[in-house]
Write a structure and sequence with these properties.
The protein is α+β, with helices and mostly antiparallel strands. It contains ten helices and 18 strands. The chain folds into three domains: 85 residues, Rossmann fold (3-Layer(aba) Sandwich); 204 residues, D-amino Acid Aminotransferase, Chain A, domain 1 (2-Layer Sandwich); 73 residues, Aldehyde Oxidoreductase, domain 3, CATH 3.90.1170. It is globular and about 50 Å long. One of its GO terms (molecular function) is metal ion binding.
Amino acid sequence: MQAPEPPNLGSRTLESDIGIQPRTIIMVGASVRAAAQSARRAGFTVIGIDQFGDWDARNACDEFVDLEDREGVDAALSRHPDALVVPVGGISDLERWLDRHPQAARRWVISAETRQSIDDPLMLSSLAGRAGMSFPETLDASGRIIRTVSPQRWLSKPKHGSGGIGIRWHTGGTLPDRTDPQSRWLQHWIPGRSFGATLWIGPRRTVLLGVCRSMFHRMTTQSSAKNLFANNPFVYSGSFGPIDCQPSVVDPLLALSRHLSSECGYQGPCNVDFLIDPMGTLWLLEINPRWSGSTELVERRMIDDGVLGADDSLIQWWLDDTTAHVAVSPRRRKQGESDAYYKKVCFARRRLLFQRERIASVVDCNLQIADIPVDGSVVPRGTPICSVIAKGRPSDPDFYRRVRRAHHQLCCETRFPK
């Protein structure tokens, strides 16, 4: 699959004109844990900036700064003037702040212009149409119709975000003001099954690395200033895969990524969120030019299949601008059932005190715990505790039972603070 040469590179590579040698990288996102582990495996020095500060995220980073600590972020940028800034999650407020920061603006591995172009529903609608996919009717802050279809329910979506946080049912009222930085899109809801596709877009070829089912969790906890998960019916709760795909799914995704490269000049890893409705139509929802929640499952499968070495990393592919990768397309895997990965986010059913020693009774050779809170952390009701990542055969009922059992133990049986 040959992708056209991009006219203006929206991603910056190892030998870019800004002269940065990214063996030290600054990762910024809602959660940097999985991407930081990937980068460290390849020998990068990682400066992590994220929202949750989980124990294993901190452990994967050489330095760690809380996303809300702007003075700490500023100091980290000053200490590492030659490090690229790599986005690995939706971080709207900090992202805009970094775009204006004199030390960070020129060091984004993806330019602000490219990110804004990929976020534009007009661009998404155009890319979807050229790839043979559909795109839901979407209204911007001025009420302009992007594309016309006829579903019956509307969603209110933040223009920037991560993990489904802030996506809610729209119950009527006026549209947001275009000048409001917190303004939102209104988008018709399409029924169907949700998926996330991980692609590699290079200057000479485009590869679909894997497709995973996406799962979501309805959160209706009471709102508070610090509870991002309050009253959110579409919070990301995990992925399953990679799964086998038919050409009717693979071909539009590859076409979409080629048009993304030619239209926006983007190269690197890319996650495409899409759904398949009951009639089999593919609907593009959004494109994230970065590491995503399901990318680590795809990377693990690539290591299992020998496509990646044990010390290789998708982050290394991106930053070292390796373009001659040989990957196994989901429709060309060898015959016979392969192992899949099941990632399930555990949400606290009541306020609890996390103790890492309890993980020992859950973990086995094919089941791991990730996104682990700092020992002794109080986890509010309705917020994530950690993630369960299991490996097994999809046809084996015990595979799913093990995940459900671990999920129940972590959500319901952890000791509570007095």
